[in-house]
Amino acid sequence: MLCIRWSQSIGGGKGSHVFHDGIRKHRFHPQQASARNDMLSNACLTLNKKTPCYLKKVYFCRKYPVMKKQVLLLFVMLPMIAMAQFDQYFTESSLRVDYCLTGNGKATTFSLKELIHEPYWSGSKTNLIDNLEFGNYIVKVYEAGTDKLLFSKGYQNLYGEWQTTDEAKVVTKTFDESVIVPFPKVKIEVAICYKTWEGELVEGMRITVKPDDYFIRDYDNLNLPVYDAWIGNKDITKAVDVVILPEGYTQAEMGKFIKDCDFFVKSMFDYAPYDRYRESFNIRGVMVPSAESGCTMPGDHIYKNTVMRFSFWTFDSERYCMSTDNRDIRDLAGQVPYDQIYILVNTEKYGGGGIYNFYCSSASSNGFSSDVIIHEFGHGFAGLADEYYDDDTYGDMYNNDLEPWEPNLTTLVDFDIKWKDMMDKKTPIPTPREEKYEHIIGVFEGGGYEPEGVYSPQMDCLMKTFKGHDFCPVCQRAIERMILYYSK
Ligand SMILES: [Zn+2]
Asked: pLDDT digits over 371-380, tens only?
């Protein structure tokens, strides 16, 4: 989804930071930021002289210890059973399925590209079946032969957004994508499913995977330096692991990237409910330089050689800054444990984007970056929809005869499953956009780019404008639920 059009900036934050160089662990306090940045920049510069081609270069090594099995006295049986199931079927690493979507506004073809064995499983070991059912796409893993569902996860993609554009009416394109599932111990079947306009779940592709198949490629260990911007106190399978990737930062600008990662952390923990769940997050920056500084801006005839080839004017919307270089993004993200990918784009230009369980991006150095960063993370992490309704980048996004999956929108088709429980019974449904309802939870017509037929929970919210700097209570609850979903 696009970032919103304007905002005001905020700041804040705290804490010391840890940097691993593969051998030693260095802890820096905020007052030592200069020394820390110098050390990182010097290290990168030294290495870069030897190898200008960063993607093939061996930098530092780093391994993340996965939590050792512990014998715990568990008082709740369900998590124990789920953990046992995880251990029966899966290892503590991941299978990345790279595939292509080729099509247009009317039809889509799915095709497999490659299977990759990645080193970390950072998702939950107990919440293996995605009961939230957010997103128009879902990956399902079955035990081969029995059709027993072992794992599922919902997501959105850039291709699905593109399908609603005018371009998709006349052009056919191919988009790369990946899904990440726990690496199996047994033969499995992986199905990629999508929801039709009528809400029907259709299987687009199904493949069989044998864990000992020697055509499953081992991931490329790029041995890039990693900056631990924030490490909470939870194991990777019980934390929200965010990987930050630098786009358009040259080798000499790696110190700036470190500062921008710190800014990301400060921004996140300035907002509720993230401020109450600091220990449930790990935020790591993978330090990979671009050949050129900045970002491609086609509308201004500016083209940059950058590591992930992000571009403003995505779908011809100036502030929408996205990339279709999925495999480069995934190769870099896979260097560390991750549940969410966040790309910081080294520019002062206002913009960004965020897609549920896909990736988020934001300009690093715009005056509004703090709000944009958190707004986009609302899309990517919690599946929140834009609550504004005055943007015509997309065509029809919602079928008004169905309840949308986004937790902060309703068509009133099945409002009981949304935020009805949070409303005062005296509040009218729908709720007029009048001053007396300005700060209460209601059902206000307009949201998700649609001025009619789609309703949002509050007259203003960080998913609509940046006037108030806060998420509405409905969005806050959705974020909190998602944090807890990852924490089990
Ligand atoms: Zn909201």
From this structure: 999 999 999 9
